[in-house]
TrEMBL record, chain A:
The lineage of its organism: Eukaryota, Metazoa, Chordata, Craniata, Vertebrata. Keywords: Membrane, Transmembrane, Transmembrane helix. CDD domains: uroplakin_I_like_LEL. Its main location: membrane. This is Tetraspanin. It comes from Cyprinus carpio carpio. Coiled coil: none annotated. It is a multi-pass membrane protein. Belongs to the tetraspanin (TM4SF) family. GO terms for cellular component: plasma membrane. InterPro entries: Tetraspanin/Peripherin, Tetraspanin_animals, Tetraspanin_EC2_sf.
UniProtKB/TrEMBL annotation, chain B:
The keyword S-adenosyl-L-methionine does not apply. It comes from Cyprinus carpio carpio. The keyword Transmembrane helix applies. The chain crosses the membrane at residues 191-214. This is Uroplakin 3b.
Length: 251, 276
């Protein structure tokens, strides 16, 4: 290969590495956003033992930063026109590629277990809401917050509390059919119409279910890790193929 | 023929006018669409306005709540043991296997429900007291059964003045066990399949290309292996014959004219410098 074409290829490798470094840094940032869990829905996946979305986010934090560092090293290796450096770069990039694949696949798969349909979330709510164990307290706190802020009741609707036996029914069933978080409140946080809420008057209770909100948040986390990770991996795949061609043309 | 038709019409009209006044002679579900109108343990009934048209100042309206299969049992017991109606079937043991399967609970004074104040916004919840222990408490109903209700007009000395008809059958839904909810995997989403398959293919392809690259670089290295020559080799100069102070036979005489360009006095053999 002529010297001019080799220089051109070197610039292509450097440019792709620069873009991949920026993409890796962005993956690092997005994965931190997921791990921080601004919507505070971690207990729903934590109590059920299926918190791999957050585990995948942690892996993506490390691989994103590792992509950033390795791609900068790759720019240096390409400038040096050294086969040894390029080989080291290729091996390290391949290892990070494998870990990032694992992260993307784990997040996408685990999301299906958690929020494929509303059954798991509903069962967990019925079992742990108003329970006095540590998991029960976490779930109760999470659900109360969600029901009050998103203005919803139950997983699919208030009828969940009527149709199923639940810990809440065991403890408070004689007084309350559903938690007071299901009731509409005034701006002073007082319940608007407690009697009406207890019988399910349509204007005093939140009629829609909370599952849609929970599903959309967890899906948002998952797509941030897995789809964005997937796109970074496709860019890195292309970069590695060009780097391998460059390696073969060296010396 | 005409007179019969007129009489029939008049009776129908009077019946319509009677119901038009709101006089329904049996307990009814509240017409509002409350979400908790019928739960597995409670039922919301309309309050008993306009059920009894007697004017009885100290009378109370009581409700008989029980399984519809026990309607006949209650009617038989009422006819036979009139003085002890209210303690016929205490609530705590009402729904045991060998029991009467009904209980009585107080709704209110007859004077609290005058016909002209009838309102559909008022309701009476049967089962509001939950699992209570009083004889006539408003305890919860058993889930999964058909229940029927009847109003009784009771005088203060526990004598039965009047009783309404039985209500229609109201089916209570069976309370579902939360442990029967199947929370396993429902379905794999398309996104997951796409991501997994494409990423696995990409990893395999990268590995393949990597090994091809290694093979190509190793093969081309073996074919064009040249002996690398260092720039200068120092060979000690051996004189096999004793040639001191004589013209060295190993020096090429053709280049002797160029010796000034390429050599210094130190490097030339001694006899050539003597010539100069």
């Amino acid at each position: 290969m002529g010297a001019g074409a080799l220089t051109c290829l070197m610039f292509v490798v450097i440019a792709l590495n620069a873009i991949a470094a920026a993409a890796g840094l962005a993956l690092f940032a997005v994965a931190i956003w997921v791990a921080v869990d601004g919507y505070k829905l971690y207990p729903i996946s934590g109590v059920s033992g299926k918190d791999d979305i957050f585990a995948a986010a942690w892996i993506a934090i490390f691989t994103g930063f590792a992509f950033f560092l390795t791609c900068i090293y790759g720019i240096f290796a390409a400038l040096k026109r050294s086969r040894g450096f390029m080989m080291v770069y290729l091996i390290i990039m391949f290892i990070i590629f494998l870990f990032e694949c694992a992260s993307a696949i784990t997040a996408a798969t685990n999301r299906d277990y958690l929020v494929g349909n509303s059954n798991l979330v509903k069962k967990q709510m019925l079992q742990y809401f108003a329970d006095s164990s540590t998991q029960g307290k976490q779930i109760t706190q999470t659900w109360n917050r969600v029901m009050e802020q998103v203005e919803c009741c139950g997983a699919d609707g208030p009828s969940d509390w009527i149709q199923y036996n639940s810990t809440f029914k065991q403890m408070f069933g004689s007084t309350y059919i559903w938690p007071l978080s299901c009731c509409k409140r005034l701006s002073t946080f007082e319940v608007e119409d407690k009697e009406g809420c207890m019988v399910g008057k349509a204007s005093t209770i939140f009629p829609k279910g909370c599952f849609q909100h929970i599903e959309s948040v967890l899906s948002r986390y998952t797509w941030a890790v897995s789809w964005y990770g997937f796109s970074v991996l496709m860019l890195v795949f292309f970069t590695l193929v060009i780097a391998m061609i460059y390696y073969m043309q060296l010396e | 023929m005409n007179i019969n038709a007129v009489i029939r019409l008049m009776s129908l009209l009077s019946l319509w006018m009677r119901t038009g006044e709101g006089q329904i002679f049996q307990p009814e579900l509240t017409p509002n669409t409350f979400l908790a109108r019928i739960t597995s343990n409670t039922v919301m009934l309309k309050q008993p306005y306009c059920v009894f048209d007697q004017t009885c100042p100290d009378c109370e309206i009581w409700l008989v709540a029980g399984l519809c299969s026990a309607n006949a049992i209650f009617d038989a017991q009422v006819n036979s043991s009139t003085p002890n109606i209210l303690s016929l079937s205490p609530y705590p043991t009402a729904f045991n296997s060998s029991s009467n399967n009904f209980f009585l609970t107080r709704v209110g004074l007859l004077s609290d429900f005058p016909c002209n104040q009838s309102s559909n916004d008022q309701y009476f919840v049967v089962g509001a007291d939950g699992k209570c222990s009083g004889i006539n408490c408003n305890g919860e109903l058993p889930d999964g059964f058909s229940v029927c209700f009847k109003y009784l007009l009771i005088y203060t000395n526990e004598t039965l003045v009047n009783s309404s008809n039985w209500s229609v059958n109201i089916d209570l839904p069976k309370l579902l066990n939360l442990h029967n909810i199947n929370d396993g995997l429902s379905a794999r989403s398309g996104a997951m399949v796409v991501i997994t398959s494409i990423l696995c293919a990409a990893v395999a392809l990268l590995l393949l290309l990597f090994f091809i690259m290694l093979c190509i670089t190793c093969c081309t290295k073996k074919e064009s292996k040249e002996i690398s020559v260092t720039n200068s080799i120092r060979i000690p100069r051996y004189d096999t014959h004793d040639l001191k102070n004589r013209v060295h036979p190993y020096d090429n005489p053709a280049y002797q004219s160029d010796f000034k360009n390429y050599s210094t006095a130190n490097t030339l053999p001694k006899d050539v410098t003597q010539k100069l």
